[in-house]
Amino acid sequence: xxxxxxxxxxxxxxxxxxxxxxxxxxxxxxxxxxxxxxxxxxxxxxxxxxxxxx
Length: 54
Hints:
The protein is mainly α. Helices cover 43% and strands 0% of the residues.
């Protein structure tokens, strides 16, 4: 085996940090995501259907 390419040891996991939101911020975030999904759906409806590949 070529000594130039060695397998790196696995990385240690870092602790996960939790995020706490106020109810108003959580609702605003949910509304923003919902609006983004609605815009994406309305955009996709105007696209031509995908061409099937063989």
